[in-house]
Amino acid sequence: MTRDKKGPSQRQLKVGELIRHALSDILTRGELMDEVIERHTITVPEVKMSPDLKLATAYVMPLGGGEVKEVVTHLQKHAKFFRGELAKRVELRYMPEIRFRKDTSFETSQRIDEILASPEVTRDLDDD
Q: Which UniProt keywords apply (predicted)?
């Protein structure tokens, strides 16, 4: 039986959410000794899993949005540490490789709000 739909499977979503919670817990408790990471409060809004569950992409953003590139670089530098800690907290047959990326969902949301508030869109909506 093959999948015809394009979205992630329920298993991908569930594993991604388990890893997201565990990563957030590790970051909140300050278990990693890194001066760049320690001086930021880092949010993990989403973790996307590959179809084979062997790669987890964690989208992260420091609160306030400062030093995003540096934070992501330092998180990526400690990916093996996170993978080891996740293996202790999340029961999976195979712990996926972790990679970190900048979360752009807030910027996308803000851009959509700006477009909807623009005079052109407001004028078109008022015509109805």
A: Cytoplasm, Ribosome biogenesis
d(CA 77, CA 10): 30
State pLDDT tens for residues 84-117.
999 999 999 999 999 999 988 777 777 877 777 7
User: What is the reported pTM?
Assistant: 0.79
- Cβ-proximal residues to 102 (8 Å cutoff; 6+ apart), any chain: 59, 60, 61, 68, 69, 72
Strand order through the sheet with 55-62: 42-49, 55-62, 97-102
* DSSP labels, 27-41: HHHT-S--HHHHTS-
